[in-house]
Each structure stands twice: as structure tokens, then as C-alpha cells.
Amino acid sequence: MILFLDIISFLFNFINTYFLFKILCRFLNIREQLIIRIISFLFCFPIVNIIIYANDITNILGVLIGFLIFAFVFYNDICIRKLSTVIIIYPMIVSVNYLAQDIGMHIFFMFIDASELNAKNVSTFKSTFIHTVSLVVAPVIWFSVWQMIKRMNVRSINLINTKMWLMIDGICLCVFTSILIILNFVPENPLINYPICFSGIATIFASLYMTIYISDSVQTAYQLQTIKMRHQYYEEKNKRKKKYAAYIMI
Q: I want to staple 40 with a disulfide (CB 3.0 to 4.6 A). Which of 73, 74, 110, 124 is the partner?
């Protein structure tokens, strides 16, 4: 039974990896080589499924550094877009994994008493079961993120300029720094940590929606400008034709 639960946990982690990979490919242009794509997918696995505890600066900063290196090595894009993608996605990874891990741990100690801790088989099964159940939330959130941004046109996001990215980053940096400070430098307190993480997830969703709105607006403006230029071109062309026809008649 424990093996079955471990397989289910692996499937949940694989789903998280798949959606993170798809999300990153929507934001950034991955290098074309197949081997790079495969390695990139594999690197997404430890990044999105990293175990996060409060005051665990090694994992919290480790995933940040690893994510930055990963984005700059495997994706072929301008630096501001790579940095912005990390600033937007990183707080989501940390918040979701911290909440899943911490809530699962609290549930574990709520349902297992001291006598059961001595019974290794019972406690192992219950801990594995609770851990597996706690992992359900992450695939749902990453699926929701993917559903939100999958309609975002890759060409339109290429039209977002540096100033627009900096505006989005300014909002996400508030979440970014809040989560880093709360989880690393404030004594662990679910009454503080949980609301910060939940509000961070909500803010990231709002930032993603804003990114989509900006990219759609830029794309619409670009299309309108193209239509206007074509209209002006054909107007000038018709004027030249009329002038030429009048000249012939003379």
C-alpha cells in the first residue's frame, strides 16, 4: 500500500513538473535542441517539488539560485524576461510547497499520538498517506496557472517591453521579499506565515492576469497600428493611381 501511495506522490510531482515546464515555455523561448528540452524538463522536477520548511534558508535560497541558473542557461531570451519569470514564478513555488509541507506535518501530529510513533509500520503508512494527500493541492494550483496563461500568445508576450516588465516585477517583488523575510527571519507562526503565503499566491495569480492583459493589449495595439499603416499605404497607392490616370488623360 505504501508503494502505491509513493507512486501516486510521484505522479503528482510529475504533473507539477509538466505544468511548470509548459508555463516556462509560454514565458520564455526554450533552446531548440531536443536534448536541451529533455534536460530542461528534468531540471523542472527538483525545482517545482522542492521541500520547503520555515527557517530553511538552504532550500529557500537554493531553489532561487537554481531557478535563476536554470532560466539563464536553458532559455534563449533577454535577461529582463528571464529575471521577471523567476520573480513571478518563484514565490508560487515556495508558497505552495511550504503550505503543503507544513499543513501536512500539522495534520500528521494531530492524528498520530506518541504510542503510534513507536509502531513503525502504522506511523509510516499514516505519514505516507498524509504526505500524499497534502500533495494534491500543488497540481491543482499549477493546472490553474496553466489554464490561465495557455491562451497567452507567445508573439504578444515578445512585444512586452522592459518598462512593462519592470512594472510587473515591482508588484511581484513585494510578494518575493515578503515570503523570503517571513520564512527565513521571522519565528515560525502559522497565523502569520499562512496568510502571507495565501495572499502571495493570490497576488501572483493577479500578476499573471495582468501580464496576460498587458500582452493582449500590446498585441491589439500592434495589430491596429499594422492595419492603420496598411490603410495609409493603400490610400497613398490609390492617390498615385488617380494622379497617374489624370496625367494620362491629359
A: 74
Average pLDDT over residues 144-159: 77
Distance (Å, whole) CA 101 – CA 52? 7
Please say whether the beta carbons of 193 and 98 come within 8 A: yes
Phi-psi region of 55 (alpha: psi -120 to 50; beta: other; left: phi over 0): left
| HSE-up (13 A, CA, CB side) for residue 245 | 6
Q: Please provide residue 21's backbone torsions phi and psi, each rounded to the nearest 5 degrees.
A: -60, -45
Q: How many angstroms separate the CA atoms of 148 and 236, rounded?
A: 43
Contact 193, 182 (CB under 8 A): yes
Q: Can you tell me the distance from the alpha carbon of 150 to that of 142, in angstroms, rounded to the nearest whole number?
A: 12
What DSSP assignment string belongs to 121-189?
HHHHHHHHHHHHHHTTHHHHHHHHHHHHHTTS-HHHHHT--HHHHHHHHHHHHHHHHHHHHHHHHS---
Tell me if the pTM is above 0.90: no
User: In DSSP terms, which residues pair with 30 in a beta bridge?
Assistant: 75
